[in-house]
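Appendix B, Record 12. Input sequence as logged:
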Amino acid sequence: MYLRICSFVVFVVLIVCATLTLSSCGGAPAANKANPGTSSSPAAPAPSPTPTPEGTTVLDNVQNTRTWLTCGNCGNDHATGPAAKGTFSPGLASPSEDGASTEFSITATTPYTNVYFYQEHTPVTTQINALTYEFDLYIPQGMENASQGIEFEVQQIVGGWVYNFGWQANYQQNIWRIFDYGAKQWNPTPVAFNGFTPGTWHHIVAEYHNDLATHMVYHDALTVDGVRTAVNITHHAFNAGGRDQFTNAIQLDSNSTATPYSVYVDKMTIAYK
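Logged structural output:
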């Protein structure tokens, strides 16, 4: 399924086509009343603390804002075709690491459909020399094989040029992939993907930068549970016009049996300079 960045309703999204290869561009339970700060599940491996470089803008715990926007088919080619239902619930005490995680869920009736959840932030109109998208991900027991793919991205539009920084955990090919927006194709990476162990937190850090003069996007590295892999893959930005924009997103893709599932996200941070 190919995920494309779509429509100017979302201004940029990755797409999913109903093939055996998956894409990228994406009522929830009530909050548990457990004491804030407690966790009912093991925590992700703690990253080594590193000082924040001077001049870095940090957006902390963005998973807990109620400004997530959703669409049921905007990850499809031209935002057409069957729509999957998606919900999100912020501020959940369990499972969580700090007392406030967010649950994202997909309930599809058609195989290989998706739900794209995204947020808009103050536009970044200058070159991004270093960008990290960091968060912890939890898959509930029994749902570890329900997904066709889990995708996440940060995206900058400046001067009409779309700089997309996206990754996809591809359950069919067992690899991590990135989407080349200009070429409308997925690129494999050297990072293997063997699924996420359910019932525990997984720590993910994606690193990127771009070049506004040459309109290039750089995927620098991906860290999963403390293991960092330098990928150093580039692709061209794409001029789609439109207003300046800065967004982040997560997308859930349904599998061949349209099995419903949920994921939980905690400690989601965007840092750039």
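The domain at 65-272 is CATH 2.60.120.200 (Jelly Rolls).
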